[in-house]
Specification:
The chain is of the alpha/beta class and 505 residues long. It folds into two domains: 224 residues, 3-Layer(aba) Sandwich (Rossmann fold), CATH 3.40.50.300; 187 residues, Rossmann fold (3-Layer(aba) Sandwich). Helix content is 29%, strand content 26%. It has 13 helices and 24 strands. The protein has a nine-stranded mixed sheet, sandwiched between helices. It has a nine-stranded mixed sheet with strand order 16-15-17-18-14-19-20-21-22. A two-stranded antiparallel sheet has the order 1-2. Strand 8 and strand 9 form a beta hairpin. The protein is elongated and about 95 Å long. The chain starts with 15 loop residues before the first strand and ends in an 18-residue tail after the last strand.
Length: 505
């Protein structure tokens, strides 16, 4: 070969095949590479069989022949499992390698007898069935039984290699199911490996997640991804990566519906920012958040309210008593109210709901009330911070206005939070109780704003039939934020201020 002669580069164009699960296809950059062999690992109950059935049923919908080879479950069991999801397997070929004859103790060379002859017969039966049917998609369930027949790792590995070459020559896309006890060296044989996990919690539903351990030639989305197994099959929630969702928007300030609160915030709430409302229980955080949301709805924006703690009926009734009727906005579809049960919610599922609110409903104003329940729904504090960082970055990049309600422990004096999320927030509204003239009152201050030049004053907040009212700066007080102020009597309190007709309120 001449020195300047070089072999020409061969370009391979990847042809993908859907798994039948939209979220998993997204993680796999479009799905599985066609005509390859994949290993699906997971302990019993993680959802391997359900995923495999969804894979075959997706092929049926596309006019592709599917074959389910089972050594662990009977055909009746598979059909019953499919029926529980509302599926029919009539268009899928189910081939049982274990039948009544194989269970006969007088039958020599049954597939349950661990010998070289029986392993060879089992593999040969599978090959004959594939040749007869010529399927496009194949599921082999499971490798655990094949491993028992092989007796030693070398024979087992050789048979898997033989199956791989056989399926490749027939241009099949294959899922091999395993209970997670396979030799790690088997991973090198498979084109890709998907791991399903299930964890139990002390309270609430179990958590399921998956991870792509290996996928040749594909830039998959790494890390753990939550999924749920319910009627209808698996639903996978790809891990949220905020950097993938940038968009252009106008970062202008919009009114909260209260002129005094706008002044305190330095002009109002800015699009593409999030504001943390912190304070003890009952201090007015939710009411303030609703007032801000109602102003956005009246401007023609769409909003979504994620309610963790309070019942939706109670929240709506309380808002109506304060002159903030949300029912018309619920009826015309501009407001979506979602009641969230944190004991049943996976973090990835919640992120998916937030994305749907923004991308499908078109919401530009969101409220999370409250973060306390979300904190307890998380497996660990560090995971909450990482999840919230990605979630808030996503919302900011989408140009949404987000309010986060965080309840604090204590009423007067030492007030603390379950977790510090202040550094993640673009703005912080701090609510505090204080005592004056024998009454418990509420103080409001803006302690942080990355966007606006906000006021540094502390003002009184009062809730009344018209919503909320923000008073003058409490210049005559010392120690308001501690809850134990001293007062010189020079600043008029809200209930002392004259009304429009000159009479005290």
């Amino acid at each position: 070969m001449p020195p300047d002669a070089r072999p020409s580069a061969v370009s391979f164009r990847r042809t993908s095949v859907s798994t039948g699960i939209a979220g998993l296809d997204d993680i796999l950059a479009g799905g599985l590479t066609r005509e390859r062999l994949y290993l699906l690992e997971g302990t019993p109950g993680t959802g391997k069989t359900t995923l495999a059935l969804q894979f075959l049923l997706d092929g049926v919908a596309r006019g592709e022949t599917g074959l389910y080879v089972t050594l662990s479950e009977s055909s009746d069991e598979l059909r019953a499992a499919a029926a529980s999801h509302g599926w029919s397997l009539d268009d899928i070929e189910i081939y049982e390698l274990v039948n009544e004859l194989g269970l006969d103790p007088d039958s020599e060379q049954s597939v349950l007898h661990p010998s070289e002859v029986e392993l060879g017969e089992t593999v040969r039966e599978v090959m004959e069935r594939v040749d007869a049917l010529n399927p496009v998609r194949v599921v082999f369930d499971s490798l655990s039984e094949l491993r028992l027949l092989a007796q030693n790792p070398l024979r087992y590995r050789r048979q898997i290699l033989a199956l791989k070459q056989f399926f490749s020559a027939r241009r099949c896309t294959v899922l091999l199911l395993d209970d997670g006890t396979s030799d790690v060296q088997l991973h090198s044989i498979a084109h890709g490996v998907v791991l399903l996990e299930q964890t139990q919690r002390a309270f609430g539903a179990e958590r399921r997640r998956l991870r792509i351990l290996k996928m040749r030639g594909v830039k998959v989305r790494g890390g753990y991804h939550d999924f749920i197994l319910d009627t209808g099959g698996l639903t996978v929630f790809p891990r949220l990566v905020a950097a993938e969702h940038g968009t252009d928007f106008d970062p202008t300030a919009a009114s909260t519906g209260s002129a005094e609160l706008d002044l305190l915030l330095g002009g109002g709430l800015v699009r593409g920012t999030n504001t943390l409302l912190m304070g003890p229980s009952g201090v007015g955080k939710t009411t303030t958040a609703i007032r801000c949301m109602l102003a956005a709805l009246e401007r023609g924006e769409k909003a979504t309210y994620f309610l963790f703690d309070e019942g939706s009926a109670t929240m709506l009734a309380r808002a109506a008593m304060l002159g903030m009727n949300l029912h018309p906005h619920l009826e015309n579809g501009s407001l979506t109210l979602l009641q969230v049960d944190p004991a049943e919610l996976a973090p990835g599922e919640f992120s998916s709901r937030v994305r749907a609110a923004v991308e499908e409903h078109g919401s530009t104003f969101l409220i999370l009330d409250s973060l306390n329940a979300y904190i307890h729904a998380m497996p660990g504090e560090q995971y909450l911070v990482l999840q919230m960082h990605e979630l808030l970055s996503y919302l900011n990049q989408k140009g949404a206005t987000t309010l986060l309600v965080l309840g604090q422990h204590g009423v007067i004096g030492d007030v603390r939070s379950d977790i510090d999320l202040s550094y993640l927030s673009d703005g912080i509204l701090l609510f505090r109780y204080f005592e004056a003239k024998g009454e418990v009152r509420t103080a409001l201050s803006v302690v942080k704003s990355r966007i606006n030049a906000h006021e540094r004053t502390i003002r009184e907040l009062k809730l009344f039939a018209g919503g909320l009212q923000v008073g003058e700066a409490l210049a005559g007080f010392q120690g308001v934020l501690s809850g134990l102020p001293s007062y010189d009597g020079k600043v008029a309190m809200l209930n002392d201020a004259p009304a429009a007709d000159g009479t005290p309120e």
